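Translate sequence into structure tokens.
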Amino acid sequence: MTPDIWFAWPSREALSFEGQSRARLGIAWAVRSVVLGGMLWSAISDKGPHGWSWVVGVAIVAAVVVLARAFFRETFAHRLWPSLAVLLLVMATALVALKSGWEVFAVIVWCGCAVTALERLPLGAAVPCTLAALAAYAVVNADNWPTTAITTVGLGLAGYVLRLDAEARGNAQRLLAQERAARAAEAESAALAERARIAREIHDVLAHSLSAQLVHLEAARLMIEREPAGDFRDRILERVVSARSMAREGLAETRQALSALRGEMTPVEDFLRTLVEGGGPGGVAGVEVTGERRALTAEASQAVRRVAQEAMTNVRKHAPGAAVAVRLEYLPGEVALEVRDSGGGRCAGELTASGSGYGLLGMRERAELLGGSLEAGPEEEGFVVRLRVPA
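Result follows.
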């Protein structure tokens, strides 16, 4: 054996019941119940069913059970000294039971300590503990030494076999977890490849089409500007410029959607700052970010971006010249966005009546599908949009 084997703990998978079949768990609990019942019966029957023997016997058995549970917790956490301390307390309790006349109970506890130590402790600590427990058992049963010797060897082998079995089960659990992780990574890779393919298709069709429209609209604008000034010419020019702006915005949003499909989205804070700086309706516009920044899920990031875009569009349409404050807050398990304007132009209450409320309605549905919420409405000054989504 290499030195590492003597100091290595059994894996946590080996020390837990995770991954065991129901039949195996049922057998394990049945064995524990039989052992516990035998301990309780031996503690009581040695002194008879009368007097304080019932109380004392139940108290000692309860103490052993509580200490055994603590030993299982400490070994699962790989804490050596607390585990040894609890195990020694169990063996000392068995010694007290022996001095009180409960010989069978003490023998059962020592045998259990010997097997469990080999199963759950590093071998460097388990072997001395097992030898001590089996030595105590041998001293008590010194009258029949052949049977005692065979039992002692058998218990030692049983403990080591249980340890090997637990390690094999733990290795199987780790391999299963690794296989699941590999399958998940493969599925994610396939999904990313499909999203990249869709992004290429959208780019080849929609982005090229919008780019071509921008070129033609720009050419039309230049041609119209060469015409003599007049009311009809100005109206046509206004429509062409408006169409060009819409095509440019559509192309920008298409590129953002393509970046999202490829997983190349810029951080949401940078997006919000660009949105406010490039499309601020007027006045003082700023972005405040609070909380511990972290990567958001694609769904949450898209929801924040779309709601911010819709809110800024509404401010430009219904409160031109108003100052806008954008606040992004990272909360435990979720992210919150608040877009607040200072009012101005048309009354904020006219937002829904004007027909523009459909955008916010769609954003509210998007938030609810993600398990979040969206609130929008007028306050003392201006209009406020608040979004909260899990992230």
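Note: The CA atoms of residues 91 and 262 lie 62 Å apart.
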